[in-house]
Amino acid sequence: MSAPADAIGTEPKIELRGLKKAFGAKTVLDGIDLSVGEGESVVIIGGSGTGKSVMLKCILGLLWPDAGSICIDGMDVSALADRTRQTHTAKIGMLFQGSALFDSLTVWENVAFALRSRTAMSRSEAREIALGKLAQVGLGPDVADLSPAELSGGMQRRVALARAIATDPEIVFFDEPTAGLDPILGDIINRLIVDCVRHVGATAVSITHDMTSARKIADRIAMLHDGRIIWDGPAGDIDSSGNAFVDQFIHGRAEGPIGMAVRR
Length: 264
Description:
CATH architecture of one domain: 3-Layer(aba) Sandwich
Helix content: 25-40%
Largest sheet: 6 strands, mixed
CATH superfamily of one domain: P-loop containing nucleotide triphosphate hydrolases
CATH topology of one domain: Rossmann fold
Distance between the termini: 38 Å
Number of helices: 10
Radius of gyration: 19 Å
CATH class of one domain: Alpha Beta
Strand content: 15-25%
Shape: globular
Strand order of the largest sheet: 6-7-8-3-9-10
Number of strands: 10
Structural class: alpha/beta
């Protein structure tokens, strides 16, 4: 997924500097440095437990970092009070791992949740927007009044994507967007992510183990290992990264520096 050169601004849309987070004696993030340009799609790869989800939660304000800065549009949001920070996090849409739809709400109510909670929009207006977002992900109005339990896993993921873009966010986060899907459904979701992000004009940050997905949706790929970004470059360069950790991960080999670190 390639953003037009003139769509990427000179000031990073998101910039992490020296980001640290520990839980007791366990250091999870150990000085993360990462910049994401406006309109860019960056995918973070790395093994389980390397801190990818913790990093996202820090950016979203669900966790407070122990040190470092998180800048959105040049403003360090990690230093802001909760209410002021909400102004910046309102720019963000999120596709959660496993979809995380609300069982008690209908499909259209799930899609319109942020619209209704952040504004005084009427139900009828919110429903109309929700139907439009569902159409963007290939779902018709016939599913709008169903419950999430009545949908297949692939359809639930589409609804979650529609919810993520419902407010036309400036930034969208994707947490393992193809997890649990077969390769065909996974490719459909990847294509929808590319199309929807382009349509909204959003900056995208994704975390995934799925290298097929990473190659499909990324302008840049960064690898997180031992709490740090150990490689960062264009998606097309990852096969020639020259980094033994990256090479082992993308080819799924048991033997290599990551395995040696696990055995110690």
